[in-house]
Amino acid sequence: MNFIEAENLTFRYHGSDEPVLNGLHLTIEKGSYTAILGHNGSGKSTLARLLCGLLTPDEGTVRVAGIDTSDEERFYDLREKCAMIFQNPDNQLVAGIVEEDVAFAPENLGLPREEIRRRVDEALSVVGMTDYALHATAKLSGGQKQRVAIAGVLAMRPDCIIFDEATSMLDPTGRKEIMAAIKRLNETYGITVLTITHYMNEAVEADRVVVLNHGQIYMDGTPKEIFSRVDELKEVSLSAPQVTELLHLLNKDGFSFPKGLLHTDEAADALQAEWNARGCKPLTDLTHERAPYTPNPPVLELKDVSFVYGEGTPYRKVALDHVNVAFPKGEIIGVIGHTGSGKSTMASLLNGLLKPSEGTVLLDGKDIHADPKKLRTVRSRVGLVFQYPEYQLFEETTAADIAFGPKNMGLSAEDIDARVKKAAAFCGIHDSAMTRSPFDLSGGQKRRAAIAGILAMEPEVLVLDEPAAGLDPMGREEIFSGLVEYRNARGATLLLISHSMEEVARYADRILVLKDGKVFLYGTVEEVFGRADDLSAASLDLPQITKLFLELKKRGMTDASDVYTVPYAKRRTEKLYDEK
Known about the structure:
Layout: E1 2-11, E2 21-29, E3 33-38, H1 44-51, E4 59-64, E5 67-68, H2 75-81, E6 82-85, H3 98-108, H4 113-126, H5 142-154, E7 160-164, H6 172-189, E8 192-196, H7 200-203, E9 208-213, E10 216-221, H8 223-227, H9 230-235, H10 242-252, H11 264-278, E11 298-309, E12 317-328, E13 332-337, H12 343-350, E14 358-363, E15 366-367, H13 375-381, E16 382-385, H14 398-408, H15 413-426, H16 431-434, H17 443-455, E17 461-465, H18 473-490, E18 493-497, H19 501-507, E19 510-515, E20 518-524, H20 525-529, H21 532-537, H22 544-554, H23 566-576
Parallel strand pairs: 3-8, 3-9, 6-7, 7-8, 13-18, 13-19, 16-17, 17-18
Antiparallel strand pairs: 1-2, 1-4, 4-5, 9-10, 11-12, 11-14, 14-15, 19-20
C-alpha cells in the first residue's frame, strides 16, 4: 500500500525559470524506510517539503495517506500524518525549556496530561537528552538543539517522518543513537521514514535508496544495488561507504571482490577469503606515509580559559573549563568532540565574539581583549564561519554578501571585485547564484557563500565550525581541497571543527579532542586515532576504513592499524597480497 504518491511533480522557486523538480514520479510504501540522496541543488529538500505539504507543486499532485497536499482544508490532518525534521533545528524550536518544546506538539494534539508526560520522557530518552529536560533551549549547542527537535517530532508519533539532514550536526555516537531510534520507529511502530542524508553509512541502513539528479530520479533500488554503482554515483557528486569504495578500487586493479559490500565485517570476510586463497602472510611493514610531525610556533593560544553561560542564573552552564591549548601557525587542526563539548564556544572565543569568563586568548602572544578598539583588527585576521551559515548571511544578493567584509576593510572597488570573484570561484559558487538572494540558496550553497565571505577578507587564521555540513560528498572534497590550497598558498592556520572522523583524518595535521569542556586529547592523527577506546569514551568514533584494518589486525592478517583514508588503505591492501 502506498502512503505517499507524487505524480508529475514540477516546482520552481519564485523568480527562477529553471524548475527544481521536473516531472518527477515517486511512490513511498507505508511502513517503508527510504533514503534520498543527491548532490546540492538536486531537489532533495524541495521534494521533502512538497511531500509533507509545506510547499505545493506548480504542476502535478502529491497525496499523503490519500490527502491531497494542496487541499487547504485538510492541512491539519496532513500535519498529524506527516512530520518533518529540518537541517537547522532553530527553525522548529518554539519553547524556552527543553521539555516544554518536546511537549508542544502533543499538547496541540489535545492528548491527556499523563500521555504527554510519558511521550516527552520517552522521546528525550531516545535522543539522549533526559538530563537536559529543564535546560534552556537557547543555551544548547547546535547538536543538542537537533536532538530536541527530533524528540519533539517523535513525541507526536506521526505516521511518517521526513528527516532532512537531521543528523548532520550530531557527534558520531549521537548519529548512531538517532539512526537506531529511526530504525526502531520504523520496525517497531511501523512509521514510514524518509531520510535525506549526505552520510552514505546512514543510507545503507534504509530498505530503499532513491538518488536525485537535477530534479529527476537518477537511481532507485536497494542500498546494495545503488552502492554497487560507485562510478555512476561519483558522476553525480556522490560517493559510497569507504569499504565499498576500497573494494571497487581494488577490482579496477584486477581483483574480483563481490560488489556492493557495505559493512566492515562483510568487507573483512571478502578480504580474508582472498588472502587465504592466495596463501598470504601477515603484513608487517608498518612504515607510514605521513612525514614526521614538527610543531610550528603558536599563532593562537588559550591560556587557562573558562567560559560560563548564564552566570548567576538557574541555567548556569560551564562550556569550557580551564582550557590550555596552542594552535601552531600554518597547520590544520581538526577539532572534534561530543555534542555540547564546547567546540562552538571555543570558536567564538578565538576571534573575540565571546570574552572568556576566566583566562586569556592570545593572538601572536597578545591578549585580544587588551584593547577593545583592536577587536575589529583581530576579526579580520581570525575569520570565523559559523555552524549555521544563515546566521552570517544578510545582504540582498550573494555577491553583496561576499563583498561585505572587504568593503569594511576599506579596499578599493577593483580589489573588492577581484576578491569577490576569487572567493566565489574558490568555493564553487556559480555566476547564477551571485545575483540571487543568499536566503534562496540551498543549505549547501549557503555554506559555500558563508565561507566565501570570510575568505574574501583573506584571514591569517580560519576557524570553520562544521564547514562541510550540508554539502554533498564531492562538494565536501572541493571545499576541503580548496581550504588546504588556501593554507598552502598563504601559510594560514585552519581550525576545522567537525563531526566527520573521515574528514579530520584526511586533512588535519593535528587533532584536538574536547570532552565536557576540557582538553581530552591533543596530538597527531596517529596519536589520537590510535586511542580508539578513549575516543569511544568521548562519544566519538573511528573512520570506517580504520575499523576495517583493526578487524584485519584481529584476524592476524596485518599489524597495520594507522589507516585512515581509502587511497592509503588501497596501497596497504595491495601490499597485503604481496606477502607470500
